[in-house]
Predict the 3D structure of the following.
Amino acid sequence: MGQKLEILRDYFIEGKGKQTIAKEKNISRNTVKNYIKEFIEAKGELLREYVDNPDLTYKLIEEMVGVPKYNISNRKSLILNNEHKAYIQDCLVNNEQKKLNGEKKICMAGTDIYEGLVIEKNYQGAYSTVTGYIRNLDLNKKEAFIKQVYDYGEVFQFDWGNIPFVIGGKKTHLKEAVFTLPKSNLRFAYLYRYENTRAFVDAHIKFFNFIGGVPKQGVYDNTKVAIARFVGRNEKEPTIAMSQLSLYYGFNFRFCNAYSGNEKGSVENAVEFVRRKAFCKNNIFDEIDDAQKQLYETLVKLNDNKVTKEKTANEIFAVEKRYLLPLMPDYSNKEIKTAKVDEKWSVINYATNRYSVPDYLCGKSVELHIYIDKINIVYNNKMICSHSLCEQECGGQWILEINHYRETLLKKPGAIRGSLAFKGLQKELQETFDKHFKDNPKDFILLLDVLNDHSYERVDKVIKELEAKLIPVNIDNIKVILYRNNDVIKPYSVNDEILKCARNELSKYGALATGGIYE
């Protein structure tokens, strides 16, 4: 991680003095003072002006870290270095997970791990060195659970779970982010499609908001979204996201030893317990939101159950809440990237999926503001459009909005019917095109403009009304009805008020022409 982030963590989280930090880092004390001063000022600005400018959270996060620099001048040459050891440990962790999933027959053997080291990590040592290191880990050694005593507000524990679902008729797996407070046994969980950094950060934001504060320390296993790399067998370097999140909310963190789920037994049990209680009877849903709702309802019931003979988790937590660190404004869980709009297709590429942007931006550079469930395209500090993130991450999908190609289609209207963007339209709208606009595709493009101001249901009602009156269905007739006060077309009749007035006026002229008198 960047040196600046290490200094800030040592000062604010570890409680070290400025002089001590300067000596440990072998840098000027003034540099340490300046880093701390800048961070305090940025944090103060956020707390004063957050209501008017929530994006200040992102500014504070940017203040935390500089460009990572590593000193490799004194690095020793080892046959089996830390990178090789980390690779072996990852393979063994994956083996244990496969065993838990009933996939023991596809676990990696020692020869498979050795081949992977040679191919992927350029390992040049002997096979026996690898197998010897694996034996020394002594993974099969049983460890006793040691009963822990926690103070109020001291610790929270976090872990991921994996749950099979049928969503919208398709089999899938969702990731369950689970938090527990060991002191009160309060539980919180949320479902995500992927176990990635944005989901990791978003889960913490939701958890801290759920409990209304921040415990002093978090306990994690060896998840890749929290650990950047292993520095030796027992030392782990946190990811930038983990360090920034910790510094922003003010909590410390520690990692369990490999293969030591018993070191965070509270959440280990909670993952299985919450999963079973919430979904053992039903794991089939139309939408993910339905599964989220069932999970939340289960958590409400579990937290209202008694965890001691006298008190529920909620009742104990009511006391624990007084000892939590104060809650900060929501952490800015967005990633900002720059992308160039494809000159041919008017799309930007993110995670091998393509998202359309208005065609006037072809060849331009835009900013991508990426959130947990959406991606905003920004040009000249103005948000141009937004897409929901494709569910198939890294899936080579095209997510197109036909309105983004308005100017191009007005010049080439015949290209509408065969376009990929057209195939993405709702089925009813495609049928409307085939029935009424096939011979006049330009009108259909103008109809899409109308749909920006009116719902499809309202427009469809007008079209059906025109059909019933045997009036041509075109953009002009649709607009006449949509943009006037009355909602229906009235056929002309002798009782029509306008016709009555016209006839009354004509009768006057008839009376004058004959010298008669009109009433």
